[in-house]
């Protein structure tokens, strides 16, 4: 009898190959089935990874008893629909970011997973990057003293052709938002993971360049629960795309890091020199140029979480925070008022 955990993927778009590769290369996992409404897409992905079974209806696939984990790789606004169906058939769930696009749908996913006693993990691969881990550890060890500023600069380039390439992109219904909800959500998750939860936000957002329903540019001033302030800038309309950058400053030190690695690591108390950590691939100008390392780590973590009966590295509750902040930014931009979370 196989002790490998058996994975299935719903959605055969751009991100699905990162899941397929991480599953098929893990000695404790196997990819047994893939589903997508496009038969052409699902055949192509299954062919690349030697997956034996394909479906155009994921409900049919979920009836199988030999699937342990479902990777949710459909458009953002459909995450809850697939995740709830997976939970109701007793399958663990590993969901692409964002968790979903509304609070009601995220709450439903978390509730259904708990009710079915299955794991719900989410892909926020930036949490696995060495620079981010080092920065969080330094903040938690109070190396910076009282935190003063926590900033995230998330300046991407996505062409009009990118938005036109799939009907769901740039729509409120299925993308849930634009530069913040699709691209910036990683950085918004990360800055909160390092600095702490956000108390309130004041923001502006609009489509300044692209012909889309949602924003291609947003700026927000945030106040963290711990008293620090911060700026979040997110866009998909600047050329060339800039590497994402995070700046954390306290009364006793500063940490600045970007896709290419740590830029500043200075403490008043003369702490040890900058950690020797590598940078990572930047997707600021090309959506497919993300590093696959995070998916390997998070898929392996899901396997171990199931075997050890513990929470995965990024839980549904964790993952919902970034979306709640983005929704508050949208509300503030719409009303012109400060919004409390």
From TrEMBL:
Residue span(s) of domain Gfo/Idh/MocA-like oxidoreductase N-terminal: 5-123
Domain of life: Bacteria
Lineage: Bacteria, Bacillati, Bacillota, Bacilli, Bacillales
Pfam annotation, one family: GFO_IDH_MocA_C3
One GO MF term: nucleotide binding
Name listed for the protein in its UniProt record: Predicted dehydrogenase
Residue intervals of the GFO/IDH/MocA-like oxidoreductase domain: 134-256
Record Gene3D superfamilies: Dihydrodipicolinate Reductase, domain 2 (3.30.360.10), NAD(P)-binding Rossmann-like Domain (3.40.50.720)
SUPFAM superfamilies (alphabetical): Glyceraldehyde-3-phosphate dehydrogenase-like, C-terminal domain, NAD(P)-binding Rossmann-fold domains
């Amino acid at each position: 009898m196989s002790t490998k955990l058996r994975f299935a993927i719903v959605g055969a778009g751009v991100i699905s190959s990162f899941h397929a590769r991480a599953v098929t290369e893990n000695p404790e996992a196997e990819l047994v089935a893939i589903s997508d409404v496009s038969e052409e897409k699902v055949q192509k992905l299954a062919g690349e990874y030697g997956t034996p079974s394909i479906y155009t209806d994921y409900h049919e696939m979920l009836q199988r008893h030999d699937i342990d984990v479902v990777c949710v790789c459909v458009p953002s606004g459909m995450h809850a629909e697939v995740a709830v169906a997976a939970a109701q058939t007793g399958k663990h769930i590993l969901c692409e970011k964002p968790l979903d696009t509304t609070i009601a749908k995220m709450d439903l996913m978390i509730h259904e997973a708990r009710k079915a006693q299955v794991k719900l993990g989410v892909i926020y691969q930036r949490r696995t990057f060495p620079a981010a881990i080092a920065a969080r550890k330094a903040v938690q060890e109070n190396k910076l003293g009282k935190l003063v500023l926590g900033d995230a600069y998330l300046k991407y380039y996505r062409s009009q052709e990118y938005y036109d390439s799939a009907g769901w992109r740039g729509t409120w219904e299925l993308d849930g938002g634009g530069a913040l909800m699709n691209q910036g959500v990683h950085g918004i998750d990360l800055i909160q993971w390092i600095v702490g939860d956000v108390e309130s936000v004041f923001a502006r957002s609009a489509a300044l360049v692209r012909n889309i329903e949602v924003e291609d540019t947003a700026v927000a001033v945030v106040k963290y629960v711990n008293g620090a302030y911060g700026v979040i800038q997110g866009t998909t309309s600047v050329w060339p795309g800039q590497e994402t950058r995070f700046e954390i400053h306290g009364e006793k030190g500063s940490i600045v890091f970007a896709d290419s690695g740590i830029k500043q690591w200075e403490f008043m108390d003369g702490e040890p020199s900058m950690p020797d950590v590598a940078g990572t691939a930047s997707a600021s100008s090309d959506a497919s140029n993300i590093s696959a390392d995070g998916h390997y780590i998070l898929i392996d973590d899901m396997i171990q979480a199931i075997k050890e009966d513990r929470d995965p590295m990024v839980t549904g509750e964790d993952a919902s925070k970034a979306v709640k902040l983005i929704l508050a930014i949208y509300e503030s931009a719409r009303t012109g008022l400060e919004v409390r979370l």
